[in-house]
From TrEMBL:
<dbReference type="GO" id="GO:0003866">
    <property type="term" value="F:3-phosphoshikimate 1-carboxyvinyltransferase activity"/>
</dbReference>
<dbReference type="GO" id="GO:0008652">
    <property type="term" value="P:amino acid biosynthetic process"/>
</dbReference>
<feature type="domain" description="Enolpyruvate transferase">
    <location>
        <begin position="15"/>
        <end position="436"/>
    </location>
</feature>
<feature type="binding site">
    <location>
        <position position="129"/>
    </location>
    <ligand>
        <name>phosphoenolpyruvate</name>
    </ligand>
</feature>
<dbReference type="Pfam" id="PF00275">
    <property type="entry name" value="EPSP_synthase"/>
</dbReference>
<feature type="binding site">
    <location>
        <position position="327"/>
    </location>
    <ligand>
        <name>3-phosphoshikimate</name>
    </ligand>
</feature>
<feature type="binding site">
    <location>
        <position position="28"/>
    </location>
    <ligand>
        <name>phosphoenolpyruvate</name>
    </ligand>
</feature>
<feature type="binding site">
    <location>
        <position position="29"/>
    </location>
    <ligand>
        <name>3-phosphoshikimate</name>
    </ligand>
</feature>
<dbReference type="InterPro" id="IPR023193">
    <property type="entry name" value="EPSP_synthase_CS"/>
</dbReference>
<feature type="binding site">
    <location>
        <position position="403"/>
    </location>
    <ligand>
        <name>phosphoenolpyruvate</name>
    </ligand>
</feature>
<dbReference type="GO" id="GO:0009073">
    <property type="term" value="P:aromatic amino acid family biosynthetic process"/>
</dbReference>
<dbReference type="InterPro" id="IPR013792">
    <property type="entry name" value="RNA3'P_cycl/enolpyr_Trfase_a/b"/>
</dbReference>
<feature type="binding site">
    <location>
        <position position="358"/>
    </location>
    <ligand>
        <name>phosphoenolpyruvate</name>
    </ligand>
</feature>
<dbReference type="GO" id="GO:0009423">
    <property type="term" value="P:chorismate biosynthetic process"/>
</dbReference>
<comment type="similarity">
    <text>Belongs to the EPSP synthase family.</text>
</comment>
<comment type="function">
    <text>Catalyzes the transfer of the enolpyruvyl moiety of phosphoenolpyruvate (PEP) to the 5-hydroxyl of shikimate-3-phosphate (S3P) to produce enolpyruvyl shikimate-3-phosphate and inorganic phosphate.</text>
</comment>
<feature type="binding site">
    <location>
        <position position="33"/>
    </location>
    <ligand>
        <name>3-phosphoshikimate</name>
    </ligand>
</feature>
Amino acid sequence: MSAHGDPIPMSARRAGPLSGVAEVPGDKSISHRALILGALSVGETRITGLLEGQDVLDTARAMRAFGADVAHLGPGEWVVNGVGVGGFAEPADVIDCGNSGTGVRLIMGAMASSPITATFTGDASLRARPMGRVTEPLALFGAAAYGRAGGRLPMTVVGAVEPVPVRYAVPVPSAQVKSAVLLAGLNAPGETVVKEREPTRDHTERMLAGFGASLRIEQTDEGRVIVLTGQPELRPQSIAVPRDPSSAAFPVCAALIVEGSDVLVPGIGLNPTRAGLFTTLIEMGADLSYENPREEGGEPVADLRARFSPAMKGIEVPAERAPSMIDEYPILAVVAAFAEGVTRMPGIGELRVKESDRIAAMAAGLRACGAMVEEGADWMAVTGRGPGGLPGGATCATHLDHRIAMSFLCAGMAAQHPVTVDDAGPIATSFPVFEPLMERLGAVFARVGA
Ligand code: S3P
């Protein structure tokens, strides 16, 4: 089943080289945060380059349900009139976050320190994902959560009437958990302290500072410590959302594995907490360069140039790099299948609780395509077949997971036989223009059964 309708089986086959310019959409993580912090500030926040994928549209709808005025002015252009910290109204109906773990977890955090109750749900993928990792720290503020067994959605969160500030060490490397705690800390008096052992994406911290929150970040022997002073008046902002490195990963990696390709992907956000994939690809021998590096909207940005790279070799990806490329392992596994030798990916246990169990989904699909894949609880190793060497010819199950679908379609662009995905529908959650954008570069897709 697709997230929002009937499944859309689709295949990709090897054609000519990919070439041209790929203008990928806005960053999903930053888009969610821009809407939520806009809703928590007083006055008008203007956003350009917002990702208009289903995940972010679901967050926009949720912000309206909590009382903010959210208006769509034109492509990527939005205005949010916020209600201020502590100003959320109680939603009149269930909040449906669709496929989005980021949406539901950040919104739970943002409402948990207000005296309101909200019930959250999502699609079959989201209803299978653990929410205890956010509701446990939110309980320390005084909130209560009642969900299904295993801390699953649907779940009702009863916000704290008199929230207290919290000190919390995030037990898993998760920017969603860190952000949920920080957003809840906004409406608690005094200092909320969050500690993370491994640095995860820091868009929440950067944006909170931009909105005028008082925030201190200390690097200690035990990791990063973030100290937030509660109950600030957030000042509305103008936010230019950079293009998403996690979406750029697909045209970049497709160009590396499709013979003769040369693709430019301009204006990509290269926050160091997000750019691990590109470092890894360069270490593997990819012909990938950063052009015109600059800063936009408080985030480092550059144009990425990727060319066919027949000399890529498998490497061991350092486990400590995992948080900075956590969403990119599925497409890295595809690149690894076209490299020479073994690519080992340790320290990736979190992939088991993403939109799908991404280790299992990639291992099953790549094996069906003719690659050798080994896996353990928190690791995966892919033995490559060399450039053009993956047989393909399989149908891969995507489990309502956009990144699994896009990864196998990219595999099909370079494999000897077409690769089919059982449902391309979820791609709309993060990269709604994936199909026409890749087609403009030269990719050839077919809607199976159409
Ligand atoms: C995200 C954090 C990551 C990532 C997700 C987006 C965010 O999830 O996988 O796609 O915007 O904070 P975790 O917090 O579960 O690692």
